[in-house]
Protein backbone atom coordinates (compact mmCIF):
# COMPACT_ATOMS: atom_id res chain seq x y z
CA UNK A 1 0.00 0.00 0.00
CA UNK A 2 3.01 2.34 -0.39
CA UNK A 3 1.42 4.78 -2.82
CA UNK A 4 4.39 7.15 -3.18
CA UNK A 5 6.82 4.31 -3.91
CA UNK A 6 4.46 2.78 -6.47
CA UNK A 7 4.18 6.19 -8.17
CA UNK A 8 7.97 6.59 -8.30
CA UNK A 9 8.38 3.15 -9.86
CA UNK A 10 5.64 3.72 -12.41
CA UNK A 11 7.13 7.08 -13.38
CA UNK A 12 10.34 5.34 -14.47
CA UNK A 13 8.38 3.66 -17.28
CA UNK A 14 10.74 0.73 -16.81
CA UNK A 15 8.66 -1.55 -14.57
CA UNK A 16 6.49 -4.42 -15.71
CA UNK A 17 3.17 -3.37 -14.19
CA UNK A 18 1.76 -6.86 -14.69
CA UNK A 19 4.66 -8.97 -13.40
CA UNK A 20 3.39 -12.18 -11.82
CA UNK A 21 4.44 -14.04 -8.69
CA UNK A 22 4.80 -17.83 -8.72
CA UNK A 23 1.11 -18.23 -7.83
CA UNK A 24 -0.02 -15.84 -10.54
CA UNK A 25 -0.52 -12.68 -8.51
CA UNK A 26 0.11 -9.32 -10.18
CA UNK A 27 0.75 -6.00 -8.40
CA UNK A 28 -2.87 -5.09 -9.08
CA UNK A 29 -4.15 -8.35 -7.55
CA UNK A 30 -2.03 -7.77 -4.45
CA UNK A 31 -3.16 -4.14 -4.10
CA UNK A 32 -6.80 -5.14 -4.51
CA UNK A 33 -6.46 -7.92 -1.96
CA UNK A 34 -5.00 -5.47 0.54
CA UNK A 35 -7.73 -2.91 -0.11
CA UNK A 36 -5.19 -0.26 -1.13
CA UNK A 37 -7.50 2.06 -3.05
CA UNK A 38 -4.93 4.68 -4.06
CA UNK A 39 -2.48 2.08 -5.38
CA UNK A 40 -5.26 0.30 -7.28
CA UNK A 41 -6.17 3.61 -8.92
CA UNK A 42 -2.56 4.31 -9.90
CA UNK A 43 -2.23 0.89 -11.51
CA UNK A 44 -5.57 1.12 -13.32
CA UNK A 45 -4.63 4.56 -14.66
CA UNK A 46 -1.62 3.07 -16.47
CA UNK A 47 -4.03 1.24 -18.79
CA UNK A 48 -1.39 -1.48 -18.93
CA UNK A 49 -2.74 -3.87 -16.32
CA UNK A 50 -4.70 -7.04 -16.98
CA UNK A 51 -8.08 -6.31 -15.45
CA UNK A 52 -9.02 -9.98 -15.87
CA UNK A 53 -6.01 -11.26 -13.93
CA UNK A 54 -6.73 -14.30 -11.75
CA UNK A 55 -4.98 -16.25 -9.03
CA UNK A 56 -4.24 -19.92 -9.71
CA UNK A 57 -7.56 -20.94 -8.12
CA UNK A 58 -9.54 -18.52 -10.27
CA UNK A 59 -9.95 -15.57 -7.90
CA UNK A 60 -10.45 -12.34 -9.85
CA UNK A 61 -9.73 -8.76 -8.83
CA UNK A 62 -13.38 -8.13 -8.07
CA UNK A 63 -13.74 -11.33 -6.07
CA UNK A 64 -10.74 -10.46 -3.90
CA UNK A 65 -12.08 -6.96 -3.28
CA UNK A 66 -15.54 -8.31 -2.47
CA UNK A 67 -14.09 -10.97 -0.20
CA UNK A 68 -12.22 -8.35 1.80
CA UNK A 69 -15.16 -5.96 1.93
CA UNK A 70 -13.12 -3.25 0.21
CA UNK A 71 -16.03 -1.09 -0.93
CA UNK A 72 -13.96 1.71 -2.50
CA UNK A 73 -11.87 -0.78 -4.50
CA UNK A 74 -15.01 -2.59 -5.66
CA UNK A 75 -16.36 0.76 -6.92
CA UNK A 76 -13.12 1.48 -8.80
CA UNK A 77 -13.22 -1.90 -10.50
CA UNK A 78 -16.91 -1.68 -11.39
CA UNK A 79 -16.41 1.81 -12.80
CA UNK A 80 -13.95 0.45 -15.37
CA UNK A 81 -16.86 -1.45 -16.95
CA UNK A 82 -14.30 -4.09 -17.86
CA UNK A 83 -14.64 -6.61 -15.03
CA UNK A 84 -16.74 -9.76 -15.15
CA UNK A 85 -18.99 -9.18 -12.13
CA UNK A 86 -20.02 -12.84 -12.03
CA UNK A 87 -16.68 -14.55 -12.68
CA UNK A 88 -16.43 -17.89 -10.88
CA UNK A 89 -13.55 -19.54 -9.07
CA UNK A 90 -12.78 -23.24 -9.39
CA UNK A 91 -15.40 -24.06 -6.73
CA UNK A 92 -18.06 -21.84 -8.31
CA UNK A 93 -17.73 -18.89 -5.92
CA UNK A 94 -18.59 -15.45 -7.31
CA UNK A 95 -17.83 -11.98 -5.90
CA UNK A 96 -21.41 -11.90 -4.59
CA UNK A 97 -20.96 -15.30 -2.91
CA UNK A 98 -17.99 -14.02 -0.94
CA UNK A 99 -19.46 -10.64 -0.07
CA UNK A 100 -22.59 -12.36 1.25
CA UNK A 101 -20.56 -14.95 3.14
CA UNK A 102 -18.47 -12.30 4.87
CA UNK A 103 -21.46 -10.03 5.56
CA UNK A 104 -20.17 -7.07 3.55
CA UNK A 105 -23.48 -5.28 3.14
CA UNK A 106 -22.21 -2.29 1.13
CA UNK A 107 -20.37 -4.53 -1.35
CA UNK A 108 -23.40 -6.80 -1.76
CA UNK A 109 -25.48 -3.72 -2.55
CA UNK A 110 -22.97 -2.50 -5.14
CA UNK A 111 -22.90 -5.88 -6.86
CA UNK A 112 -26.68 -6.28 -6.88
CA UNK A 113 -27.07 -2.77 -8.30
CA UNK A 114 -25.10 -3.77 -11.41
CA UNK A 115 -28.01 -6.04 -12.38
CA UNK A 116 -25.38 -8.35 -13.84
CA UNK A 117 -24.96 -10.83 -11.02
CA UNK A 118 -26.65 -14.19 -10.56
CA UNK A 119 -28.18 -13.89 -7.10
CA UNK A 120 -28.62 -17.68 -7.01
CA UNK A 121 -25.09 -18.63 -8.06
CA UNK A 122 -24.16 -21.98 -6.50
CA UNK A 123 -20.78 -23.29 -5.45
CA UNK A 124 -19.93 -26.99 -5.72
CA UNK A 125 -21.78 -27.93 -2.51
CA UNK A 126 -24.93 -26.13 -3.67
CA UNK A 127 -24.61 -23.11 -1.37
CA UNK A 128 -26.00 -19.82 -2.69
CA UNK A 129 -25.25 -16.25 -1.52
CA UNK A 130 -28.45 -16.45 0.56
CA UNK A 131 -27.32 -19.76 2.07
CA UNK A 132 -24.04 -18.20 3.18
CA UNK A 133 -25.63 -15.06 4.59
CA UNK A 134 -28.28 -17.07 6.45
CA UNK A 135 -25.73 -19.49 7.90
CA UNK A 136 -23.54 -16.67 9.17
CA UNK A 137 -26.49 -14.64 10.51
CA UNK A 138 -25.89 -11.61 8.29
CA UNK A 139 -29.35 -10.10 8.66
CA UNK A 140 -28.78 -6.98 6.53
CA UNK A 141 -27.35 -9.02 3.65
CA UNK A 142 -30.22 -11.52 3.83
CA UNK A 143 -32.66 -8.60 3.61
CA UNK A 144 -30.87 -7.14 0.58
CA UNK A 145 -30.97 -10.49 -1.21
CA UNK A 146 -34.63 -11.11 -0.37
CA UNK A 147 -35.57 -7.60 -1.53
CA UNK A 148 -34.35 -8.41 -5.05
CA UNK A 149 -37.20 -10.93 -5.41
CA UNK A 150 -34.74 -12.93 -7.50
CA UNK A 151 -33.39 -15.37 -4.95
CA UNK A 152 -34.56 -18.92 -4.40
CA UNK A 153 -35.42 -18.74 -0.70
CA UNK A 154 -35.54 -22.53 -0.45
CA UNK A 155 -32.43 -23.41 -2.44
CA UNK A 156 -30.89 -26.62 -1.15
CA UNK A 157 -27.26 -27.58 -0.76
CA UNK A 158 -26.15 -31.05 -1.80
CA UNK A 159 -26.95 -32.25 1.74
CA UNK A 160 -30.43 -30.73 1.76
CA UNK A 161 -29.69 -27.58 3.76
CA UNK A 162 -31.99 -24.64 2.98
CA UNK A 163 -31.28 -21.06 4.13
CA UNK A 164 -33.92 -21.54 6.86
CA UNK A 165 -32.25 -24.71 8.12
CA UNK A 166 -28.86 -23.00 8.17
CA UNK A 167 -30.21 -19.99 10.04
CA UNK A 168 -32.08 -22.18 12.54
CA UNK A 169 -29.04 -24.37 13.15
CA UNK A 170 -26.99 -21.25 13.86
CA UNK A 171 -29.64 -19.79 16.15
CA UNK A 172 -29.98 -16.65 14.02
CA UNK A 173 -33.43 -15.51 15.13
CA UNK A 174 -33.68 -12.33 13.04
CA UNK A 175 -32.72 -14.18 9.85
CA UNK A 176 -35.22 -16.96 10.59
CA UNK A 177 -37.94 -14.33 10.98
CA UNK A 178 -37.02 -12.66 7.68
CA UNK A 179 -37.19 -16.00 5.88
CA UNK A 180 -40.48 -17.00 7.51
CA UNK A 181 -41.98 -13.63 6.57
CA UNK A 182 -41.49 -14.43 2.88
CA UNK A 183 -44.13 -17.19 3.18
CA UNK A 184 -42.09 -19.04 0.56
CA UNK A 185 -40.00 -21.33 2.73
CA UNK A 186 -40.61 -24.98 3.53
CA UNK A 187 -40.73 -24.81 7.31
CA UNK A 188 -40.45 -28.60 7.56
CA UNK A 189 -37.50 -28.99 5.18
CA UNK A 190 -35.07 -31.70 6.28
CA UNK A 191 -31.33 -32.07 5.95
CA UNK A 192 -30.01 -35.33 4.53
CA UNK A 193 -29.64 -36.64 8.10
CA UNK A 194 -33.14 -35.64 9.14
CA UNK A 195 -32.92 -32.29 10.94
CA UNK A 196 -35.76 -29.77 10.59
CA UNK A 197 -35.67 -26.12 11.72
CA UNK A 198 -37.89 -27.01 14.70
CA UNK A 199 -35.65 -29.91 15.71
CA UNK A 200 -32.68 -27.53 15.77
CA UNK A 201 -34.57 -24.95 17.82
CA UNK A 202 -35.76 -27.57 20.32
CA UNK A 203 -32.35 -29.19 20.60
CA UNK A 204 -30.74 -25.85 21.34
CA UNK A 205 -33.52 -24.75 23.67
CA UNK A 206 -33.85 -21.50 21.73
CA UNK A 207 -37.21 -20.22 22.95
CA UNK A 208 -37.50 -17.31 20.51
CA UNK A 209 -36.80 -19.59 17.56
CA UNK A 210 -39.24 -22.18 18.86
CA UNK A 211 -41.99 -19.61 19.21
CA UNK A 212 -41.34 -18.10 15.77
CA UNK A 213 -41.55 -21.51 14.12
CA UNK A 214 -44.53 -22.77 16.13
CA UNK A 215 -46.48 -19.52 15.70
CA UNK A 216 -46.63 -20.08 11.95
CA UNK A 217 -48.93 -23.02 12.60
CA UNK A 218 -47.11 -24.93 9.87
CA UNK A 219 -44.23 -26.54 11.73
CA UNK A 220 -44.55 -30.28 12.32
CA UNK A 221 -44.13 -30.46 16.09
CA UNK A 222 -43.74 -34.24 15.98
CA UNK A 223 -41.27 -34.47 13.09
CA UNK A 224 -38.81 -37.34 13.42
CA UNK A 225 -35.16 -36.48 13.17
CA UNK A 226 -31.91 -38.35 13.85
CA UNK A 227 -32.42 -41.50 15.92
CA UNK A 228 -36.18 -41.11 15.30
CA UNK A 229 -36.32 -38.42 17.97
CA UNK A 230 -38.92 -35.65 17.92
CA UNK A 231 -38.45 -31.98 18.91
CA UNK A 232 -39.74 -32.89 22.39
CA UNK A 233 -37.22 -35.71 22.58
CA UNK A 234 -34.32 -33.37 21.69
CA UNK A 235 -35.45 -30.74 24.19
CA UNK A 236 -35.58 -33.43 26.91
CA UNK A 237 -32.24 -34.91 25.83
CA UNK A 238 -30.51 -31.54 26.16
CA UNK A 239 -32.33 -30.73 29.41
CA UNK A 240 -34.05 -27.59 28.14
CA UNK A 241 -36.93 -27.49 30.61
CA UNK A 242 -38.54 -24.30 29.24
CA UNK A 243 -38.54 -25.75 25.72
CA UNK A 244 -40.04 -28.99 27.05
CA UNK A 245 -42.87 -27.08 28.72
CA UNK A 246 -43.53 -25.04 25.58
CA UNK A 247 -43.73 -28.14 23.39
CA UNK A 248 -45.96 -29.95 25.88
CA UNK A 249 -48.46 -27.12 25.48
CA UNK A 250 -49.13 -28.26 21.91
CA UNK A 251 -52.20 -30.50 21.76
CA UNK A 252 -50.90 -32.78 19.02
CA UNK A 253 -47.55 -33.52 20.66
CA UNK A 254 -46.84 -37.21 21.21
CA UNK A 255 -45.41 -37.39 24.72
CA UNK A 256 -44.80 -41.14 24.31
CA UNK A 257 -42.77 -40.93 21.07
CA UNK A 258 -40.22 -43.74 20.96
CA UNK A 259 -36.73 -43.37 19.50
CA UNK A 260 -34.77 -46.09 17.70
CA UNK A 261 -34.03 -47.73 21.05
CA UNK A 262 -37.69 -47.85 21.98
CA UNK A 263 -37.11 -45.29 24.72
CA UNK A 264 -39.58 -42.50 25.48
CA UNK A 265 -38.67 -38.99 26.65
CA UNK A 266 -39.83 -39.97 30.15
CA UNK A 267 -37.60 -43.02 30.33
CA UNK A 268 -34.60 -40.90 29.31
CA UNK A 269 -35.50 -38.28 31.95
CA UNK A 270 -35.74 -40.99 34.60
CA UNK A 271 -32.48 -42.62 33.54
CA UNK A 272 -30.71 -39.28 33.81
CA UNK A 273 -32.40 -38.20 37.05
CA UNK A 274 -34.11 -35.18 35.50
CA UNK A 275 -36.94 -34.89 38.02
CA UNK A 276 -38.11 -31.48 36.81
CA UNK A 277 -38.50 -32.68 33.24
CA UNK A 278 -40.15 -35.91 34.39
CA UNK A 279 -42.64 -33.85 36.40
CA UNK A 280 -43.47 -31.72 33.34
CA UNK A 281 -43.98 -34.81 31.16
CA UNK A 282 -46.19 -36.52 33.74
CA UNK A 283 -48.13 -33.29 34.19
CA UNK A 284 -49.71 -33.77 30.76
CA UNK A 285 -51.62 -36.78 32.06
CA UNK A 286 -50.89 -38.53 28.77
CA UNK A 287 -47.80 -40.53 29.66
CA UNK A 288 -47.92 -44.29 29.24
CA UNK A 289 -45.84 -45.77 32.08
CA UNK A 290 -46.01 -49.30 30.70
CA UNK A 291 -43.93 -48.66 27.57
CA UNK A 292 -40.71 -50.69 27.58
CA UNK A 293 -37.59 -49.89 25.62
CA UNK A 294 -35.69 -52.54 23.65
CA UNK A 295 -33.96 -53.69 26.82
CA UNK A 296 -37.26 -54.13 28.63
CA UNK A 297 -37.03 -51.11 30.92
CA UNK A 298 -40.03 -49.04 31.99
CA UNK A 299 -39.56 -45.69 33.76
CA UNK A 300 -40.73 -47.10 37.11
CA UNK A 301 -38.57 -50.23 36.88
CA UNK A 302 -35.51 -48.13 36.13
CA UNK A 303 -36.18 -45.68 38.96
CA UNK A 304 -36.55 -48.56 41.45
CA UNK A 305 -33.34 -50.34 40.47
CA UNK A 306 -31.51 -46.99 40.48
CA UNK A 307 -32.70 -46.25 44.02
CA UNK A 308 -34.31 -42.98 42.95
CA UNK A 309 -36.82 -42.77 45.78
CA UNK A 310 -38.25 -39.30 44.92
CA UNK A 311 -38.66 -40.38 41.27
CA UNK A 312 -40.30 -43.67 42.33
CA UNK A 313 -42.78 -41.72 44.48
CA UNK A 314 -43.53 -39.35 41.60
CA UNK A 315 -44.17 -42.20 39.16
CA UNK A 316 -46.28 -44.18 41.62
CA UNK A 317 -48.37 -41.10 42.37
CA UNK A 318 -48.98 -40.67 38.65
CA UNK A 319 -49.86 -44.35 38.33
CA UNK A 320 -52.46 -44.02 41.07
CA UNK A 321 -54.10 -40.89 39.67
CA UNK A 322 -54.11 -41.32 35.89
CA UNK A 323 -55.46 -43.95 33.56
CA UNK A 324 -52.65 -45.67 31.71
CA UNK A 325 -52.95 -45.20 27.97
CA UNK A 326 -52.62 -48.46 26.12
TrEMBL record:
Domain of life according to the entry: Eukaryota
Residue stretches of each ANK repeat: 23-45, 57-79, 91-113, 125-147, 159-181, 193-217
Origin species: Ophiobolus disseminans
InterPro entries given in the database record: Ankyrin_rpt, Ankyrin_rpt-contain_sf
SUPFAM superfamilies assigned to the protein according to its UniProt record, in alphabetical order: Ankyrin repeat
Protein name (Swiss-Prot/TrEMBL): Ankyrin
Keywords, comma-separated and alphabetical: ANK repeat, Repeat
Amino acid sequence: GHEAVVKLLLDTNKVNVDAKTTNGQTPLLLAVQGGHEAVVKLLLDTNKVDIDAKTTDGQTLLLLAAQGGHEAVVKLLLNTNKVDVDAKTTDGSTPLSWAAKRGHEAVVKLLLNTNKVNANAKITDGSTPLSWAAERGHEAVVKLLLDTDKVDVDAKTTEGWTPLLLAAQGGHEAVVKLLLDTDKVDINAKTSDGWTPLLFAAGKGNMNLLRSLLNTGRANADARGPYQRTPLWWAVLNRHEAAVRLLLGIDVINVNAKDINGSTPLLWAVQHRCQGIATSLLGTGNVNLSIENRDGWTPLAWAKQDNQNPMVELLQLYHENFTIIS
